[in-house]
Design a protein that fits this description.
- Helix content is 30%, strand content 30%.
- The chain has 171 residues and is an alpha+beta fold.
- Strands 1-2-3-5-6-8-7-4 form an eight-stranded mixed β-sheet.
- Helix 1 (11-27) crosses helix 2.
Length: 171
């Protein structure tokens, strides 16, 4: 599997994978990503900023995430405690193509993001997910993230939504 910064030519595929993920979440009875987020405009902005990273195998995009360095407004207040203070990277919009679910794509994306953070000399990576998103909860724990507490999203279509916050300290 190879990793690349997403480009405009990937946009339709990112939207297709997002729609698949939204259906899977809805089928699990989870309201995450059911209010129009993430949208085509969200991915277009991530592409423009250079934060969307794709996992590619044999020319096919199998997964994507947004990698951001620096403070995230949603992570300012936590009911619990972060493992580190100061700088960190955050991951958002982790999405795997329907045909690749369970094939290790999310784990590979996480490992890639950990290396990106190390390259920037960031001490940790933070992420959050819906409390009922069991597939993502398992993927995060498998990738070595530690559960740190609960946060509320700040801004956007899911403003105020409760999420479980995780952090991985990088060696």
């Amino acid at each position: 599997m190879e990793f690349a910064v997403a480009t405009e030519e990937h946009l339709d595929r990112l939207c297709e994978m997002t729609d698949q993920a939204k259906r899977r979440l809805r089928d699990l009875g989870i309201d995450q990503w059911q209010q129009g987020y993430p949208s085509r405009e969200t991915w277009a902005r991530d592409i423009e900023e250079g934060s969307a990273r794709v996992a590619v195998e044999n020319g096919a995009v199998l997964g994507v995430l947004a990698f951001k360095a620096g403070a995230d407004p949603s992570y300012g207040l936590i009911d619990g405690a972060w493992l580190t203070s100061g700088d960190y990277a955050s991951l958002h919009r982790v999405c795997v193509a329907g045909e690749s679910v369970g094939a290790g794509v999310a784990g590979a994306l996480f490992a890639h993001a950990f290396q990106l953070a190390r390259d920037l000399e960031l001490p940790s990576v933070r992420i959050d997910t819906h409390p009922g998103n069991r597939p993502m909860l398992r993927a995060l724990e498998k990738a070595g993230f530690a559960r740190c507490g609960q946060i509320r999203l700040v801004g956007g279509l899911e403003d105020g939504a409760l999420r479980i916050a995780f952090e991985k300290v990088l060696a």
